[in-house]
Amino acid sequence: MAFDQIRNVVAKLESDIASGPIVPVVTPQEIRSYLASHYDFTKPLALDDVVADVEQMLRTWQVQVTHPRYFGLFNPSVTLASIIADTLVAMYNPQLATWRTSPAANEIERHTLGWLGGKFGFPADAVASFTSGGAEANLSAVIVALTRAFPDYGEGGLRHLSASPTIYLTGEAHHSFNKIAHITGLGRRALRPVATDRELKMDLSDLTRCVAGDRHDGLAPFMVVGTVGTTGAGVIDPLPKLARFCRAEGLWLHIDAAWGGAAIISPRLRGHMAGVDAADSITCDAHKWFSVPMAAGMFFCRHPDAVGEAFRAETSYMPGKTVGPILDPYTTSVQWSRRFIGLKLFLALAEHGEAGYVEMIEHQARMGDVLRESLTRAGWRVVNATPLPLVCFTRDGLVPAQFLAALYQRQIAWMSEVRLGDATVVRACITSFRTTESDIEWVVREMGRLT
Ligand SMILES: Cc1ncc(COP(=O)(O)O)c(C=O)c1O
Hints:
By secondary structure, the protein is of the alpha/beta class. 41% of the residues lie in helices and 13% in strands. β4 (220-227), α10 (239-249) and β5 (252-256) form a beta-alpha-beta unit. The longest helix is centred in the C-terminal third of the chain and has 35 residues, at 343-377. The radius of gyration is 23 Å and the shape is globular. The N and C termini lie far apart (53 Å). Residues 73-74, 133-135, 138, 174, 176, 227, 231, 256, 258-259, 285, 297 line the site of pyridoxal-5'-phosphate.
């Protein structure tokens, strides 16, 4: 099949977006009245007209996250191959719940996940699956860790446990864990906050104190969550120390590398992830630094038995298991019906090759350095320390909300604000492989005119 038309449409879209506004100016009422007056669904409309209209809405009423000056939460620019992959998936609509219904798709996913699992230093028999995102991957980790640590959890539930299970993480860890604690029935108080050092990394002595104190109080510590690339400041927790501690204490080590995980393939960056190979499980999103469209997370786990126990399901209505070394994904993951999520990473990797991906990732890391240096030269104070392309900064007397409003109003860039310690600062992350040095220098220059 020829995808030249998609190629042309995407190329035009990229250039239109790059030269257009980043931040929309619209109220909910404006969109709602437009939809109500144009779409009451009483009579059919020509598809071409509706598509054109939807595109217009997407152009004008959205933050353009693929804009080279979108420096926001990690929503990437996307590769052409990954767009084509999602088109193919929608066309064939394969069902990946069982191996038997989608042998090709399941094996393509397995092959792709095996490649990345190997980069993380996981053994060949580790289990991995594509997820809807990092939140689902983190949820999978907690469910599997609970299942392994508390054999009665699966059948009897938490109420059958003699002590309350607890998870250790810093205030910088992703807040999906708060929801996960709620959803799983652990309760949000099961999350035990561990102090951070001056660089916002997990403080090992506080972790040691918390775990010992909780054991003494009759709680049941079972899991530590370390982050590679915290959402707020891009901090990497001290993985080798966490790994040693978890091994000594018999605790499950989960590494949430939702956006930072892609650094593992970069010779320049992977040293910062040393120790990740000792994790029991890892979250890494393809829809972040691997630059494919949402929704594509990944969950890796080195304990196939625990995964099988946590997600086991038997029904007469599902096609029977195929004999051989295969897994039916509905029995090894949270989802049942499964979209062919992995094709977009497979196709993009196949097209660019590992070297192409390393180049994209290292380019973005370099742009992070350029931004850091450019801001410092312009008199801003950078307040976070990370090798990843995320810069948090401020200057005396800055009111981030007002600064951002002016930034948006002049369509200079999209950045966000974040609270680090007791200060609210501006946060800028290089999420697009298309961001250039001149984009950054222009933005910093224009920012200088706002303050
Ligand atoms: C460190 C971290 N973990 C987990 C998540 C949640 O991932 P998702 O939004 O893909 O569910 C994020 C999202 O930004 C993240 O930064």
